[in-house]
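Protocol step 4 of 5: obtain the predicted structure for the target chain.
Materials: sequence only (see below). No template structures provided, no constraints applied. The aim of this step is simply to have a reference model before the mutagenesis design in step 5. Sequence pasted as it appears in the construct record:
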Amino acid sequence: MKIIFDLDGTLIDVSDRHYAVYREVSDELRGIALEKQAYWDLKKENAQWPKLLEYSKIPQANLADFMNLFIGKIEQPKYLKKDKLFPATKKVLSSLSNHELYLLSLRRSAQTLLDELE
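Step 4 output (structure tokens):
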């Protein structure tokens, strides 16, 4: 059997990385970052960036700046170090090792992805 796993959010917990980048970019744009739980509650409700910026007191006119900064930082090694395996990841992958396992990722940088997997 072939099994495909999405890396981010399925095998690794990216919540600390995403929140750290959001907080830093919000600070850079003189916004007021939400607390981590409030941020993730909105993300889980599928809130889009314009709504998150509104709650963060960042003008909608700064959406493009926010996105450019966020995308530019999200795969930097100092942030990727915040990712951690979910507790059962190794056990699950090990139990499925007799199948063909594939990893899916929408990362922009293949090299930083390989570095993180290493």
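Step 4 remarks: Residues 2-117 form one domain. Strands lie at 2-6, 12-13, 84-85, 100-104.
Proceed to step 5.
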